[in-house]
Design brief:
The protein is α/β, with parallel strands linked by helices. The chain is built from 17 helices and 13 strands. It folds into 3 domains: 61 residues, Transferase, Pyrimidine Nucleoside Phosphorylase, Chain C (Transferase, Pyrimidine Nucleoside Phosphorylase, Chain A, domain 3, Up-down Bundle); 249 residues, Nucleoside phosphorylase/phosphoribosyltransferase catalytic domain (Pyrimidine Nucleoside Phosphorylase, Chain A, domain 2), CATH 3.40.1030; 89 residues, Aldehyde Oxidoreductase, domain 3 (Alpha-Beta Complex).
């Protein structure tokens, strides 16, 4: 290993000779220690994006990034499980599922990420809650999970530090859409958390990184094979992202939608159904449900009974958020000063939605990052987004813009109008769940 250096490793990937286990371990340690520069990390990511590293290189990179930090061990009365989404628009499932799984007897150390490219990040959404701390120590994470059954946090300095470094570099170097890098990033954190079961939500469609079912299937298979090979029982669902999953896209507006669902104030069916499907899989994998259908019923009961809301509120308070958040969330979340309705120019049906364009519009409003140092405005985004197939009368509102000023609101309105196609013919209904890989 002494003969290895960043340049030779990058050159090997560039020249399509692959990534050995030894090289992966060296590079991951260099990412974690700082011996690998940002420029070298970016060059490595681009070489992997363009040329790939194959199944063996994928496993080597995943394990190397996992081993770049601490790997957790648990002594709990129930199974340790988690869920991960490959990223989409209006996808706030994690905020619903973690407390629902905890209500069903699972323990969920959910180490999440920030927004990548045009997609939203779970941590960015949670940090819209005043005072919420996503940066905690491993000891705090373990204590929170033992006490409440779940904790949603960011990658700590101790857990997969190589991934923490590479994750941010991918976002600003246009190297997000790589099966090898996505697989290693997701699984290095998950495997370091000491999981016994993992369920994956692999998105496909206009708002996903994977636009085709073939690409989504390839990613799902790579994730499932790598994770199962490392000893963690894993299943993936390929779910639809040809439109935002929820009716909101942004940070605070998505948290509002989550709280409405947890408290029963208003329920988005697609958001509910994906949460229940993933939860049913996780409970069955972990041995907490006899069948997947039984698991789905347990998740729905946790949501309907209010137990998931109670656990979510306890977690928020323990991580620095308001103690009355579940009861007072509309007052506690930041609100944008400019709210603008977007009305249909003609009557018809919503026949197409460019999900990626909506994601980029949220970023340009300030709800995401164009460069790594950007600060997020949690209040901006879109709400009341009409779904595919929705019938609209002329002048009917099909989206609502939340912006900092009138100029931003005008640009966002133009963007959402361009992202929506309205026609006289009702489109065929798309399946919410396309495939199961397990």
């Amino acid at each position: 290993m002494a003969d290895l250096d960043a340049r030779t490793i990058i050159a090997a990937v560039r020249d399509k000779t692959g990534l050995t286990e030894e090289a992966a371990q060296w590079f991951a340690r260099g990412l974690a220690s700082g011996n690998v520069t940002d420029a070298q990390a970016g060059a490595f990511a681009m070489a992997v994006k363009l040329n790939g590293i194959g199944p063996e290189g994928r496993v080597a990179l995943t394990q190397a990034m996992r081993d770049s930090g601490r790997v957790l061990n648990w002594d709990l009365p129930g199974p340790v499980v988690d869920k991960h989404s490959t990223g989409g628009i209006g996808d706030s499932v994690s905020l619903l599922l973690a407390p629902a799984l905890a209500a069903c007897g699972a323990y969920v150390p959910m180490i999440s990420g920030r927004g990548l490219g045009h997609t939203g990040g779970t941590l960015d959404k949670l940090e819209a809650i005043p005072g919420y701390r996503s940066n905690v120590t491993v000891a705090e994470l373990q204590s929170l999970v033992e006490q409440f059954g779940c904790a949603i946090i960011g990658a700590t300095d101790d857990i997969a530090p190589a991934d923490r470094r590479l994750y941010g570099i991918r976002d600003v170097t246009s190297t997000v859409e790589s099966i090898d890098l996505i697989t290693a990033s997701i699984l290095s954190k998950k495997l370091a958390a000491g999981l016994q079961a993992l369920v994956l939500d692999v998105k496909v469609g206009s708002g996903a990184f994977m636009k085709t079912i073939e690409d989504a299937r390839a990613l799902a298979q790579a994730l499932v094979e790598t994770s199962n090979g490392a000893g963690c029982r894993t299943v993936a669902l390929i779910t639809d992202m040809d439109q935002p999953l929820g009716s909101s896209a942004g940070n605070a507006v998505e948290v509002i939608e989550v709280m409405e669902t947890l408290t029963g104030t208003a329920i988005n069916e697609a958001l509910w159904d994906v949460t229940a499907a993933l939860g049913g899989e996780a409970l069955a994998l972990a041995g907490l449900a006899a069948t997947i259908d039984d698991g789905v019923e347990q998740i729905e009961e946790a949501l309907e009974s209010g137990r998931a809301a109670e656990i979510f509120g306890e977690m928020v308070a323990a991580l620095g958020g308001p103690h009355d958040f579940v009861d007072r969330y509309p007052d506690r979340l930041p609100a944008a000063p400019v709210v603008r309705d977007v009305a249909a120019p003609e009557a018809g049906f919503v026949s197409r939605i460019d999900g990626e364009a909506i994601g980029h519009a949220v970023v340009h409003l300030g709800g995401g990052r164009l460069k790594g140092t950007d600060r997020i405005n949690p209040s901006v985004g879109f709400s009341d987004l009409a779904p595919l197939g929705e019938p609209l009368a002329k002048g009917e509102v099909f989206a609502r813009v939340h912006a900092t000023n009138q100029a931003d609101a005008e640009r966002a309105e133009a963007a959402v109008r361009a992202a929506y196609q309205i026609s006289g013919e009702e489109p065929e209904e798309q399946p919410l769940i396309h495939e199961r890989i397990g």
